[in-house]
Amino acid sequence: MTRSTEGRASTGDVGIVWFRRDLRLEDNPAWAAATARHDVIVPLHVLDPAVLRWAGPARRERHLAELAALDDELRRIGGRLLLRRGDPVTVVPAEVARLGATAVHLNRGVTPASDRRDAAVAAALPAGAEVLGRWGDLVLAPGSVLTADGSVPKVFTAFWKRWQRARWDEWPEPGDALVTDDAGDGDDLPPATAEAGSTGAHAALTAFLDGPVDDYRAGRDRIDRPATSELSVALHFGTISARRVVEAAGSAGADRQAFIRQLAWRDWYAHLLAAHPQLVDHAMRPELDRIEWRHDPDGFEAWRDGRTGYPIVDAGMRQLAETGRMHNRVRMVVASFLVKDLLIDWRLGERHLRRALIDGDVAQNVGNWQWVAGTGPDAVPYFRVLNPVTQGRRHDPDGTFVRRWVPELRGLPGPDVHAPWELDEATLRAAGVELGRDYPHPIVDHAAARERAIGAYRVARPPAAGDDTRLPAGPARRGS
DNA sequence: TTTTGAGTTGTTCGA
DNA sequence: GTCGAACAACTCAAA
Fold it and tell me: Where does residue A386 rank: exposed (0-12), middle (13-18), buried (19+ CB within 10 A)?
């Protein structure tokens, strides 16, 4: 502990704000409640090796930059972020005892692991100290958007209707407590980057609201341009509150409405996981856990390393490996490819993306993977299989995105880059591409793989009542 | 309790 | 090239 704080702290009641996924001071319920209640605040962050093990290099690096930015923000009001390393279940109670704190304020997470950890911390606190949890990550807290029977709506549209009607609970107003300036291990942090912290988050929000938002419906699926808010990382670390984003966007016009709707999807997946923790590794409908996934380590590696022979898939996976980022549309395409084209268990892909993405989040990632796999909530026809070539031509019409991440195909002109195997020898030769040498042949035939996936899903489905003699048939054809 | 209409970031086929 | 229907059969929400 550094000098000056001792004197300030000695006269007053001490509270700890344990920052986790809420690395901001503005619009932060735990921070506001703590500064209103205590005389002295200790802002604490714990680097937990067990959590860091599950983060890829891109997220770890950004995590440290975000901590540095929060530390900068605290310095501006005379404080420092107290950084500790270790298991929070021992570290947090030890700090409470050392500082004589009476409460630990935090914003809760929606995963079972997060709740278990917080409960273990609470149980280990010295007598007289307590954990005070709030919700600060979502627009609406879990449990606040329910159907008439008290459950989380299982189709998005029903959730969306109620979400729009719901009123926010007011968050507490911050007080004027003193903030301590003990940095702990914080002096080892790398400098904050320009895009980190609340400053970076608000800059990204402003840039989005100054232009792209008003073409959001048409632009958001364009993977070759910056047409989205790029706020997922800021929302992941909580450097901006989702409520601020909703307020700033307003609701004027269908484009802004479409953008806000995406934040409702985010809330929906969090609400679902909070209510159904088993969604992390089980299909919402049990029969869909019976799908016979293929054991195909080579296929998985080709997918992971970006050499499936499908350019949009490979571009996305290489971008992910290099940067920890991926457009939402591309996430759907690569997920559909693994699950439907390769018929590999969605859980394997989910784990990989969750680790590699900077914004990798259990609730969001699981929700989206289950949506693509058709195993989760929402009405998804099981025959929905994304065609990687169609998706590429539609959302990357000039092939710009592919050429950026798959340099060996740069010589191929325009949208032809999405299906190099369809080109004639002369075109390929002119572009300096020999399939099988410079770039892989497709590892599966999409049309055949699509039929295979539909068949596997059909077999897993329980027979309809009164129809238990039906044999698994080939894909139905209309007009037959 | 029963009924009814809707779901859904898609693809494919044929007119 | 564009358009609409079909895909398959549920489950869900709300009346």
Answer: buried
